[in-house]
Amino acid sequence: LIKGIHSNAYAMDHLLQESRTLEIGNDFEDVNRIVAFMTQDLSSFGILEQSQLFRMNVLLKEALENAIFHGNLELNPEMRRDNPKLFYETAKRKMDIDPHNNRKLLLQIDISRNSAKYLVRDEGKGFAHSDLLDPKDPENLPRIKGRGLLMIMNFMDEVFWNDRGNEMTMVRYRKRN
User: Which of 45-54, 69-78, 123-132 is the least confident region?
Assistant: First the structure.
């Protein structure tokens, strides 16, 4: 066992790049486990300091939940804010109803010594991402509805969407000393 641990540490010291592709359903109760899997190697690659890992987990959870709830299950974001109990009851019900029950999320993870890139694609209708306000402009802060997207856009170095608005790519670069 100890020999195996040492060989894993040795391999991580020499690993240059890693890519993973996952396809998951709409079970939002599995999101925390998926996020832990998505971020398990960030410290080893030197992309984030251990102290930043919690924030990355929160942001990726937000991205996956947005894709499940608002993309695949087509739930209105206001419902979550106004009546959380009804929101989650509706989500559970829609998970078993066609066409929502067959929809998947595609997750692509590319981690290297220079960056971590996460792609999240749902099978929903998408949204008008071009209508998003600039989260870094102080005048927009009181007007922005999507706090999760605001946090993602402020923490990640790059965030962009496909034209349809059902695929988000987030990139975090390794910080140089």
Answer: 123-132
Provide the token pair at 123.
């099978």
Asked whether 23 and 105 are in contact (CB, 8 A), the reply is yes
Q: What is the CATH number of domain 17-173?
A: 3.30.565.10
- Cβ count within 10 A of residue 2: 6
Query: Which of 106, 113, 119 is closest to 41 using CA atoms?
Result: 113
Q: Where are the domains of the chain?
A: 17-173
* CA atoms of 15 and 49, how far apart (whole Å): 18
What is the spatial distance between Cα 176 and Cα 18, in angstroms, rounded to a whole number? 20
CB 171 within 8 A of CB 117: yes
Q: What are phi and psi of 165, to 5 degrees?
A: 90, 20
pTM for the full model? Answer: 0.85
